[in-house]
């Protein structure tokens, strides 16, 4: 036991070795980061799985639109999307109605039902050329893109005048693990409410009291809890330590 503690201390002193403690998810190629194949019912009903890309949609709509107003779950396969619901203007059909975006007509079925996780790659290459860069994930710095007005995604499909409550508090969270002083992390409400509704995070993911969230540890973040609910595979990825931990120094990330 003492040996293990000693080893951990040595690794911490070296600093570069945090990444060996945890299993980080494998990163897909940038054009596929945040892409998911929806296949709860498609193949059973004789269709190829439907492709959904976050990068396609987030240039025009914030997370809030889909994950608050339109009630999509933040877990692939959890939402019961059916063709009937789509045709009634719910889920994908809230926009894919031939008015806001291409509709549910015969010639469009395979724009969605193509089973291709890399669908739209050329469009992705074009988009990433004109937006600011970051080293990981889809390699697009979305925070900067929205701050600089290079994209202006809508916060609502129902209310053109919608504005978030102006809550801008920055939290500096001390690690529960006292050995890891350099792991202090920073959370800015200001940058998050440009994309999200308060209710996307409170009260389900985070307690609404600073340090009120129990078991707030990296281990659980890597199980897609807490910050990992979004940063595991859609927002800037968990591998990229520095934006969250300004003091951590690692070799790789
Ligand atoms: C904008 C994207 C989109 C378009 C266009 C689209 N679908 Fe779908 N469709 C979906 C999604 C998403 C699901 C749910 C996928 C899942 O979880 O398996 C779905 C589910 C289905 C299902 C299985 C569920 C059910 O309701 O039986 C069928 C069948 C289906 N679509 C047929 C079609 C046909 C036929 C067309 C063309 C006329 C079409 N879809 C066009 C997105 C689309
Ligand atoms: C145009 C609609 C739309 C927008 C905008 C959108 N999402 Fe999603 N998101 C979806 C759909 C659809 C799914 C799959 C839901 C399902 O299958 O139940 C999904 C799934 C997810 C998942 C689960 C991924 C997994 O591994 O299962 C996460 C996390 C997520 N979204 C986060 C975000 C974040 C963060 C944003 C804003 C940057 C965002 N989404 C913007 C529609 C959207
Ligand atoms: C809030 C509005 C909105 C919702 C909800 C939405 N989309 Fe879209 N989607 C768009 C817009 C706008 C575009 C760009 C349309 C265009 O280029 O004609 C788009 C483009 C796409 C494309 C790219 C097609 C291409 O050939 O470039 C796919 C695939 C797609 N959506 C699938 C889906 C699926 C599947 C769902 C539901 C799970 C969904 N979308 C939900 C608005 C939405
Ligand atoms: C999306 C934000 C985010 C990213 C990215 C992230 N972390 Fe964390 N991490 C946190 C939060 C929040 C905590 C809990 C509060 C704290 O300790 O600061 C935490 C905790 C920690 C701790 C304290 C010990 C523990 O288990 O809680 C260490 C060490 C740590 N992270 C290392 C890393 C390393 C190394 C990386 C990159 C490979 C990384 N983190 C990426 C948000 C993040
Ligand atoms: C992306 C997730 C996220 C969103 C969106 C979000 N919050 Fe928070 N909020 C947090 C986290 C993380 C904490 C700290 C929890 C902890 O330390 O246990 C927090 C803490 C708080 C606190 C307590 C601060 C303190 O000093 O004790 C308040 C109040 C709060 N949030 C209000 C809001 C409001 C109002 C909105 C919408 C305008 C909002 N939050 C949106 C993640 C979020
Ligand atoms: C509900 C989804 C969600 C949750 C939960 C979440 N984030 Fe984010 N975060 C985002 C989105 C969306 C962005 C915009 C940038 C992007 O998508 O890459 C972002 C951007 C950031 C950035 C870069 C912008 C900035 O503020 O410097 C940091 C750092 C960050 N998040 C830290 C955290 C930490 C720490 C937590 C947990 C306490 C957390 N996030 C929880 C969605 C989320």
Question: Layout of helices and strands, plus pairs?
Answer:
Layout: H1 2-14, E1 35-38, E2 50-53, H2 54-58, H3 63-69, H4 83-87, H5 109-112, H6 121-130, H7 142-147, E3 170-173, E4 185-188, H8 189-192, H9 198-201, H10 218-221, H11 228-231, H12 241-244
Antiparallel strand pairs: 1-2, 3-4
The structure holds heme C (6 copies).
Explain what you see.
The protein is built from twelve helices and four strands; from the N terminus they run H-E-E-H-H-H-H-H-H-E-E-H-H-H-H-H. It has 253 residues and is mostly helical. The protein has a domain at 30-130: Cytochrome C3 (Alpha-Beta Complex), CATH 3.90.10. The model has no long low-confidence stretch (mean pLDDT 90). Strands 1-2 form a two-stranded antiparallel ribbon. Bound molecules: heme C (HEC) (6 copies). One heme C (HEC) binds at residues 38-42, 45, 47, 50, 81-84, 86, 92, 96, 104-106, 108-109, 111-113.
């Amino acid at each position: 036991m003492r040996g293990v503690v000693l080893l951990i201390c040595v690794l911490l002193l070296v600093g570069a070795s945090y990444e060996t403690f945890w299993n980080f998810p494998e990163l897909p190629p940038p054009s596929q980061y945040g892409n998911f194949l929806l296949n709860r019912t498609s193949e059973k009903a004789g269709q190829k799985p439907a492709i959904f890309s976050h990068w396609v949609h987030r240039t025009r709509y914030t997370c809030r639109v889909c994950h608050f107003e339109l009630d999509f779950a933040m877990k692939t396969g959890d939402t019961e999307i059916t063709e009937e619901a789509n045709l009634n203007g719910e889920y994908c059909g809230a926009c894919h109605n031939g008015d806001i975006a291409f509709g549910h007509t015969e010639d469009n079925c395979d724009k969605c039902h193509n089973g291709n996780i890399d669908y739209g790659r050329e469009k992705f290459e074009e988009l990433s050329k004109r937006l600011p860069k970051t080293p990981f994930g889809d390699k697009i710095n979305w925070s900067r893109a929205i701050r600089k007005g290079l994209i202006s995604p809508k916060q609502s499909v129902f209310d053109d005048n919608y504005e978030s409550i102006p809550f801008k508090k920055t939290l500096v969270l001390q690690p529960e693990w006292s050995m890891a002083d350099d792991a202090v992390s920073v959370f800015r409400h200001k940058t998050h409410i440009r994309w999200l509704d308060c209710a996307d995070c409170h009260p389900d993911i985070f307690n609404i009291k600073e340090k009120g969230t129990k078991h707030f540890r990296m281990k659980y973040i890597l199980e897609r809890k807490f910050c990992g609910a979004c940063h595991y595979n859609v927002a800037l990825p968990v591998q990229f330590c520095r934006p969250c931990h300004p003091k951590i120094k690692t070799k790789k990330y």
